[in-house]
């Protein structure tokens, strides 16, 4: 695993945990993990978890 892949995995795990543990809107979670666009984060989460986030 490259450093970039490891960093992306950390960001995706953080986003997934925030979705599960908080009621924060997707835009807030996206910004918290370093994305400007919540739909980009959603697409990456779909690929990472093979599930659709609820928000």
Describe the structure.
The chain contains 3 helices and no strands. It has 55 residues and is mainly α. It has one domain. The mean pLDDT is 90. Helix 1 (3-21) packs across helix 3.
Kindly list the characteristics that best describe this protein.
single chain, 55 residues, mainly alpha, 3 helices, globular
N→C terminal distance: 29 Å
> Helical element count?
3
Number of strands: 0
SSE class: mainly alpha
Strand content: under 5%
Q: Looking at the chains present, what oligomeric state does this protein adopt?
A: single chain
Return Rg in Å.
10 Å
The largest β sheet comes out as: none
Average residue pLDDT: 90
What are the secondary-structure elements, in order, as H or E? HHH
What's the structural domain tally? 1
What global shape is seen? globular
Helix content: 55-70%
Segments where pLDDT lies below 50 for 5+ residues? none
Short description:
With 55 residues, this protein is mostly helical. It has helices spanning 3-21, 26-32, 38-49.
Blueprint (SSEs and pairs):
Elements: H1 3-21, H2 26-32, H3 38-49
């Amino acid at each position: 695993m490259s450093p970039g892949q490891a960093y992306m995995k950390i960001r995706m795990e953080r986003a997934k945990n925030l979705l599960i543990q908080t009621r924060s809107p997707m835009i807030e979670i996206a910004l918290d993990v370093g994305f400007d666009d919540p739909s980009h984060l959603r697409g990456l989460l779909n690929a990472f978890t093979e599930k659709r986030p609820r928000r």
